[in-house]
Amino acid sequence: MREEIAEAQSALSACGVDGTVAAVERLKGQSHISLRVDRVDAAPVALRIEPQHGILPPYDLPSEARLLRLLRRAGIPVPEVLGVCADLEPSADRGRGCLALGWVEGEVMIRQRVEPYTARAYCETLRRIHALDWRAAGLDWLPLPPDSGPALRERGEIMDRLTAFGVADLPHISRLRRALEDRVPDSPLPMLVHGDVNFGNVILRQGNPPRVAAVLDWEQTHLGDPLSDWGRLAAEDLLGNLDLTVEARQVMQEALQRYGRSDRDLHYWTLHQLYKHSSATGALTVLRGWDVDQIAAMYAEPTERLLSSDEPIRFCA
User: Fold this and answer.
1) What is the DSSP annotation of 247-307?
2) What is the pTM of this model?
3) CA–CA distances in Å: residue 140 to residues 129, 135, 223
4) Is the distance from CB of 69 to CB of 79 less than 8 angstroms?
């Protein structure tokens, strides 16, 4: 614990944040080292530290800090940026960044029963993200999708990650990739896409009604197709990671229908996000020693359901 406190103190100092660290708590998450840092003489902060070897390289915490500041100014609920550092000391950690954020009180909705009021607050916030005038918000520095469309760009990025970790040819991943080869969705005008939407990246503050206090983990944010985010939610549902009441499913289905997109496009993005999810767990079989066969078994039934029909898996099903 003493070593963790010293490391957190060093990271806070590198970010230009004052205060004496009293305690450190490791938070859930795979992409960064995420910590709650309690200080003797100040409010707690959230600290994100780039891992030495992570599943989503390259990392760019200064750009994420810039994004968060602009989103907060535009009225999107995100944590306050207290400081950022692109390169930690000592020299062995050069190239690793850290980001200090204001601590946001509330409930993280990871693997919890989702009631309709929670689903409504979540969907309304997601819609605000997608509908944001990103040019007016100063986000025009984010790269636009190529002429080939956002789907093919994302598939290229996924393939780069799979190749880097040497897991591109695992059978369950190859099957998903082959299924995508002849499928391309329509490409609407580019909108702001979070890139990692799930209930674990949302802090809910109870009330009447409850509201989203903050949306977390913006490192995969890009300009593209908002159905990419909805496909991620559908993929998480297929994998059994969402515990939605019947009423909450109806709320989410109605919110999705307001986008006016085809079932074919939703089906594509669900399959696409299952493939992307498999790339992350494939990387973790290398980094964490996860059992490859157990991971492959996790995708067998969801993949079969998607490939046996062109109908999307609806949230109200």
Assistant:
1) HHHHHHHHHHHTT---HHHHHHHHHHHHHHHHHHHHHHHHHS---HHHHHHHHHHHHHHHH
2) 0.92
3) 15, 5, 9
4) no
Is the preceding omega at residue 58 within 30 degrees of 0, hence cis? Answer: yes
Widest pairwise Cα distance in the chain: 59
Please name the amino acid found at residue 35.
Answer: L
User: 174 Cβ partners below 8 Å, 6+ apart?
Assistant: 168
Q: Under a CB-based contact definition with an 8 Å cutoff, are residues 215 and 106 in contact?
A: no
Token pair of 194, please?
A: 């979070």
- What SS3 class is residue 155? helix
- CA pair distance 217, 108, nearest whole angstrom: 13
166 sits in which H/E element: none
Question: How many Å apart are CA 97 and CA 51, to the nearest integer?
Answer: 9
For the chain, which residues score pLDDT lower than 50? 91-94
**In terms of DSSP bridges, do strands 243-244 and 113-114 run parallel, antiparallel, or are they unpaired?**
parallel
Express each pLDDT in 173-199 by its tens digit: 999 999 999 888 988 999 999 999 888
Whether the Cβ atoms of residue 228 and residue 194 lie closer than 8 Å to each other: no
Q: Which tokens in the block code for residue 101?
A: 């954020």
**pLDDT tens-digit map of 276-301:** 999 999 998 998 899 999 999 999 99
Among residues 22, 8, 20, the alpha carbon closest in space to that of 99 is found at: 8
Q: In the chain, count H helices and then E strands.
A: 9, 12
CA distance 200 to 191: 22
Per-residue pLDDT tens for 117-134?
A: 999 999 999 999 999 999
Residue for token pair 């409504």: 120
Helix (H, G, I), strand (E, B) or coil at 193: strand
